UniProtKB/TrEMBL annotation:
<feature type="transmembrane region" description="Helical">
    <location>
        <begin position="418"/>
        <end position="436"/>
    </location>
</feature>
<keyword id="KW-1003">Cell membrane</keyword>
<feature type="transmembrane region" description="Helical">
    <location>
        <begin position="281"/>
        <end position="305"/>
    </location>
</feature>
<feature type="transmembrane region" description="Helical">
    <location>
        <begin position="347"/>
        <end position="364"/>
    </location>
</feature>
<dbReference type="InterPro" id="IPR004638">
    <property type="entry name" value="EmrB-like"/>
</dbReference>
<dbReference type="GO" id="GO:0022857">
    <property type="term" value="F:transmembrane transporter activity"/>
</dbReference>
<feature type="transmembrane region" description="Helical">
    <location>
        <begin position="181"/>
        <end position="200"/>
    </location>
</feature>
<dbReference type="Pfam" id="PF07690">
    <property type="entry name" value="MFS_1"/>
</dbReference>
<dbReference type="InterPro" id="IPR020846">
    <property type="entry name" value="MFS_dom"/>
</dbReference>
<keyword id="KW-1133">Transmembrane helix</keyword>
<dbReference type="GO" id="GO:0005886">
    <property type="term" value="C:plasma membrane"/>
</dbReference>
<keyword id="KW-0472">Membrane</keyword>
<feature type="domain" description="Major facilitator superfamily (MFS) profile">
    <location>
        <begin position="28"/>
        <end position="504"/>
    </location>
</feature>
<feature type="transmembrane region" description="Helical">
    <location>
        <begin position="317"/>
        <end position="335"/>
    </location>
</feature>
<feature type="transmembrane region" description="Helical">
    <location>
        <begin position="243"/>
        <end position="260"/>
    </location>
</feature>
<keyword id="KW-0813">Transport</keyword>
<feature type="transmembrane region" description="Helical">
    <location>
        <begin position="62"/>
        <end position="81"/>
    </location>
</feature>
Length: 508
């Protein structure tokens, strides 16, 4: 890999005029980082608040949808925002995404029941998806290639920071204010970012004419929605022999076929099918999908275990998640530095997926009596594994695809990770809900009725015998979740061995 000095010399003359015309980065860049932090934060901040939200609004069987709705809608809009930015200018598109996000946040804070909250989380996600992709594209408008690596590394760090801060901040707000403040807190921060971006962001004025592939986006949205509905409702809300359930899957298959057909014939496809002939892109997308399943599945259900089984408060559960989140953050930075020195990245997905698989198997052995310190080790191992994989996959894709496909390949790899998160939360939610109900039905006699709403506080005050039976059922349901996750991650481990080291590009 070239030294920074050499790289700067190779592109400096070409980029210098563009940089001088740009506003001071000391104002704009923190605002862009804040926007990215808000978008990433809302993927994880609700995790420690879920038991409290369910306790107030009800709908335990729909619990995972509070996370899934945001992930799903933000995933669907990612490919569109990139084209909108080129067509209408990144500034106005980013401002629009922030406004949609803030409106969704305000409305989530006043939701009165679970269906309302889920629908409004989807609205919030439509803005959140734009925050991520347009912010990353905006870096290309104001920072020359020679300096872009370190700035994009900061965005990776912010994403890791959000996974650390999210559960922690969510727990603190729930305990000391209300779960509604996990949404209200976005308003002043988002408004500040909006004002700064409006004042100092002056992107390049030339706009690229694009044909927006609305049909492709429609087919993609239909396919993802059907897939999520099938994985979340199968075996929990609907029995596996339900015609309605299998009709949903059939509609999803038809939508996938429609998407492939549209991408073959679209003038500017959302995801060019030529990318799927690139070995590294396909492998990175598949591994990223599985990593998304692992990350969001574990972030959603570990706080539940801590609050229900260990009796932690929401803020304590957030603090107890630090070993996992710290592992993600530290190993992301360590892996990046090592790759910069040795110029090879293949070993990191292999080691990372192995660590994740082992950690999931260990989490599947959690008992009610498992010491919390032992659990910290398991979560730390899981975080280190995820940190070795997440950013490295994006690097591998950007390093191997043609330059003309760089943007769409990056968003495509990110898209698959987000899809994995949506599927993981929905599928694990269904597995957990079904497992809990089945075990409770087997353990409790027919005349026993559990009090509603069933918050962690209510669970702690159940009669001793009933409390022990509920915790047994709860822990058993989580065993199934993490055992299923371990089996899926083993597949990612096998796929990682098929990746190849390509020499790191030393020019843009």
């Amino acid at each position: 890999m070239q030294s920074p000095t050499h790289t700067a010399q190779s592109v400096g003359e070409e980029s210098a005029p563009a940089v001088s015309a740009h506003p001071p980065l000391r104002l704009l860049f923190p605002a862009l980082l804040l926007v990215m932090l808000l978008a990433a934060l809302d993927q994880t901040i609700v995790s420690t608040a879920l038991p409290t939200i369910v306790g107030e609004l009800g709908g335990l069987d729909r619990l995972s949808w509070v996370v899934t709705a945001y992930l799903l809608s933000s995933t669907i809009v990612v490919p569109l925002y990139g084209k909108f930015g080129d067509l209408f200018g990144r500034k106005i598109v980013l401002q629009t995404a922030i406004v949609i996000f803030l409106v969704g946040s305000a409305l989530c804070g006043v939701a009165q029941n679970m269906p309302q909250l889920i629908a409004l989380r989807a609205l919030q996600g439509i803005g959140g998806g734009g925050l991520m992709v347009v912010t990353m594209a905006a870096v290309g408008d104001v920072i020359p290639p020679a300096q872009r690596g370190k700035y994009q590394g900061m965005f990776g760090g912010v994403f890791g920071l959000a996974t650390v801060v999210g559960p922690l901040l969510g727990g603190f707000l729930v305990e000391h204010l209300s779960w509604r403040w996990i949404f209200y807190i976005n308003l002043p921060l988002g408004a500040l970012a909006l004002v700064v971006i409006g004042a100092v962001f002056k992107p390049r004025v030339e706009q690229v004419k694009h044909v927006i592939d609305y049909m492709g986006a429609g087919w993609l949205a239909a396919a993802l929605t059907c897939l999520i509905l099938f994985t979340s409702e199968g075996g929990s809300l609907l029995p596996w022999n339900s015609p309605q359930l299998w009709l949903t899957l059939l509609m999803g298959v038809v939508a996938v076929a429609g998407f492939i057909h549209e991408e073959k014939h679209a003038f500017e496809p959302i995801m060019p099918l030529a990318l799927f002939r690139e070995r590294t892109f396909v492998l990175s997308s598949l591994i990223g999908f599985i990593v998304g399943v692992s990350l969001f599945g574990s972030v959603t259900f570990l706080p539940l275990y801590l609050q229900v089984v260990k009796g932690s408060t929401p803020s304590q559960a957030g603090v107890q998640m630090l070993p996992m989140m710290g592992g993600v953050l530290v190993m992301s930075m360590v892996a990046g530095r090592i790759i910069s020195k040795i110029g090879k990245y293949r070993m990191f997905p292999i080691l990372g997926t192995a660590c994740v698989a082992v950690a999931m198997m260990l989490l599947a052995r959690l008992e009610i009596s498992t010491p919390i310190t032992q659990m910290y080790l398991y979560m730390g191992l899981l975080g280190c594994g995820l940190g070795m994989v997440m950013q490295v996959l994006i690097l591998a894709v950007q390093n191997t695809v043609e330059f003309r496909h760089m943007g769409v390949a990056t968003s495509g790899a990110t898209l698959f990770r987000s899809i994995g998160g949506s599927v993981g939360v929905a599928a694990f939610g269904a597995v957990f809900s079904h497992g809990l109900h089945t075990r409770l039905a087997a353990l409790l006699s027919a005349d026993v009725e559990l009090p509603q709403p069933l918050t962690p506080e209510v669970i702690r005050h159940l009669p001793p015998t009933l409390h022990a039976q509920y915790l047994d059922a709860f822990a058993g349901a989580l065993h199934t979740v993490y055992l299923s996750a371990a089996c899926v991650v083993v597949l990612a481990f096998a796929l990682s061995w098929l990746m190849r080291n390509a020499p790191l590009r030393t020019h843009h």
